[in-house]
Amino acid sequence: MKAGLTTLITDTPEAGFALAVKLSQKGVATTQTDPAIRKALRPSYAHDANSLIAVSHVVATHFQTIAAANDYWRK
Amino acid sequence: MKAGLTTLITDTPEAGFALAVKLSQKGVATTQTDPAIRKALRPSYAHDANSLIAVSHVVATHFQTIAAANDYWRK
Amino acid sequence: MKAGLTTLITDTPEAGFALAVKLSQKGVATTQTDPAIRKALRPSYAHDANSLIAVSHVVATHFQTIAAANDYWRK
Amino acid sequence: MKAGLTTLITDTPEAGFALAVKLSQKGVATTQTDPAIRKALRPSYAHDANSLIAVSHVVATHFQTIAAANDYWRK
Amino acid sequence: MKAGLTTLITDTPEAGFALAVKLSQKGVATTQTDPAIRKALRPSYAHDANSLIAVSHVVATHFQTIAAANDYWRK
Amino acid sequence: MKAGLTTLITDTPEAGFALAVKLSQKGVATTQTDPAIRKALRPSYAHDANSLIAVSHVVATHFQTIAAANDYWRK
């Protein structure tokens, strides 16, 4: 997302889900801007079930937004 | 979901709920990509009431999205 | 919900709330499929204020979905 | 709410907020049906900031539903 | 909010945000009605990052409701 | 946001995301008004994975509101 977030429109739900994951990470990166610190934190959440569930909840919230933006990819 | 998420449309609310569970798991799997680690984590959340409640909350958020996508399966 | 979730439409808000409770439980049951384990977990959340508040939050999220599905039971 | 939840429509936002509080409590009461146990739990959450914040979040979710049901009490 | 909550309509997003903060506090006050206890709890959450983040999440939920009520203050 | 929040309308999703981060911080600042205390709290959340995930969830909720306000920046 080097050029910044320019659109919420994606071709497929799969691409919409990937964007939701990116926005969840972007929410962390705008708070903790140091990539080295973020990388050092990975073991503490990537091996913790409750942290992973919490991440999935953030992704679900962003996916809800992106799905609405794409009118749920209805044909 | 081998081919990736291609649609949010399901025939029934039951299928919509199953998709919501899948998307909740997908949110975890995109963060912790190693299936062996995810499997090793199962005892820590599958036997913890608060973790199970948190999982149910993620499913509820995805189900809200999928229900809207399917216009609540109204006839 | 033996036949699976076939509709979100209910006659009354009360029935809608009961369905929201059921879906919250369904979210747990699809993750921890063993009823004996779920039953064994009950004392740990049914006597814990924070767990009960978290359950109520899941019910509130499902109730929001079901209320929208029923157009808020507006006459 | 002896007769059960019959409507989400309220005359004022204040009454809507009161209903949201009731539904939050109803979500707890449908899980822990014993009023004596619920009463015994009160000191543990009513004197805990994080528990009170979590309760407020459940009320906010129900209030969102009730406000939409009442078309935000717009004249 | 002595006269009770009479409207969700505000002139500006800033006023809408202030109302969201008030409703978040109202959610706590309806659960813990004793102002002295609420005041005594302040040090425990006002100096705790996770509590402050949780408060901000409640405000965000109420702000979502109020923004929709005001059609996002779109001219 | 010295002049207060005057609009939710932004030119781009990127600007909308930045506004969502600001509103998440505003939710904290309206509760803990002392900038020195907020600054002192930073190490406790900026180096904690669960806190950062929780912040991202607040941002996601505000972003959902802002995206709807901007009709998802659909051309």
Describe what this molecule looks like in 3D.
The structure is a homohexamer of 75-residue chains. Chain A is mainly α. Chain A has one domain (13-73). Helices cover 67% and strands 0% of the residues of chain A. The first copy, chain A, contains 3 helices and no strands. In chain A, α1 (13-29) packs across α3. Chain A is globular. The relative contact order of chain A is 0.19. The model of chain A has no long low-confidence stretch (mean pLDDT 95). Chains B and C meet through α1 and α3 of B and α1, α2 and α3 of C. Chains A, B, C, D, E, F: Pfam families: HTHP (PF11534). Chains A, B, C, D, E, F: This is Peroxidase. Chains A, B, C, D, E, F: InterPro entries: Hexamer_Tyr-coord_heme_pr_HTHP, HTHP_sf. Chains A, B, C, D, E, F: Keywords: Oxidoreductase, Peroxidase.
Write a brief caption for the model:
Chains A, B, C, D, E, F: Keywords: Oxidoreductase, Peroxidase. 6 copies of one chain form a homohexamer. Chain A has 3 helices and no strands.
